Amino acid sequence: MAGSESDVVTRLEEAILSLIRWVAVSDVFGPDSCQWISGQFSFRKARTVARWVVMMKQIIMLIQMKTHATIRELFYSSIRTYSTQVVTNRILAKVTQFLGVPRETLHVFSPSKTLVRGPFLLTEISYSADVEVDCNNVFETRGHQLSSFGVSRITCYAKPNFILVVEKETAFQHLLAANFIHCLYPCVIMTARGFPDLASRKLIHLMNCHLNGRTRLFCLCDYDPHGLAIAMTFAFGGEQNKQKYYTEDCAIPQMEPLLLPEPKEAVSKGIIREEDTKSMTPLDLHLLQTLHNRLKHLEQQFPSQLHASWRKSLESMLHNRVKYELDAFSDLPEVVGSIISVTVSLP
């Protein structure tokens, strides 16, 4: 085992021993014991201890046997102990916080929804041996689904002009069907099929590092607060997730939302119809204000790094208070291709 994995196993074994001693010998946790359970013994705490012990035992076995598992597999392997998937997720999150390591270090992964297409090779982690995959394979014209166990290496055999992250799978498939990649070749497009998962964010971060941060990264989302929130999560992560799981920093301040036409302009140019636009609800406006506050914080956190398109997108929505979806576009590939060609100065 690698040194870090050996340290993790040692800490897990020590934690299990402390828990067993607490249950068997003393009613109260001593000052030298783990701090996440304290006080008098009770049935509720006994159940919590049992879940912690089972979880840590599962992780030790995964590391020692050099295998991997999804969070779903952890739950199904001990349903009577965990009772629900939510409990399993919560215990795993606390274990990552306790150890101060991401769940990938514990050989635990969440199922991936990510589809990707472009001129590069991925070395994906698998149960047995790592597998190299060509993401421009002629047999995966609808995109390659990323492995749940993550990626260890990436190799681009044609430097992309840009990377486009698409919010919706329908829009992603529409672009592929229109031969979008070959029209603007070389480029990379991907989707997490809605709200981004950790696998998609890590892949974008890995690609950005591989390309030395010199390739433009765009996020194509609906013209509404929820779309902009998804774009922010792709670029900076979710605020709640940081409090839940221990994760490595995958922030990509260079990423920018693709600036879509304002509703009136889109209608006047025939890009969408008048009936495709809707007024924002009070919930939309509240989310927009939340994003505005978060943007202020991000501008302080990443001074001179954030692209101006974040503020432009936000101010455009605040001004118009009208929304529309990508599915409303009369010719999505043509509009997106034109915007990117002008933005990146493609021939």
From TrEMBL:
The active site is at Y76 (o-(5'-phospho-dna)-tyrosine intermediate). GO terms for biological process: meiotic DNA double-strand break formation; meiotic DNA double-strand break processing; reciprocal meiotic recombination. Gene3D superfamilies: 3.40.1360.10, Winged helix-like DNA-binding domain superfamily/Winged helix DNA-binding domain. The keyword Transferase does not apply. InterPro entries: Spo11/TopoVI_A, Spo11/TopoVI_A_N, Spo11/TopoVI_A_sf, TOPRIM_Topo6A/Spo11, WH-like_DNA-bd_sf. Residues 48-108 form the Spo11/DNA topoisomerase VI subunit A N-terminal domain. Belongs to the TOP6A family. This is DNA topoisomerase (ATP-hydrolyzing). It comes from Toxoplasma gondii p89. The lineage of its organism: Eukaryota, Sar, Alveolata, Apicomplexa, Conoidasida.
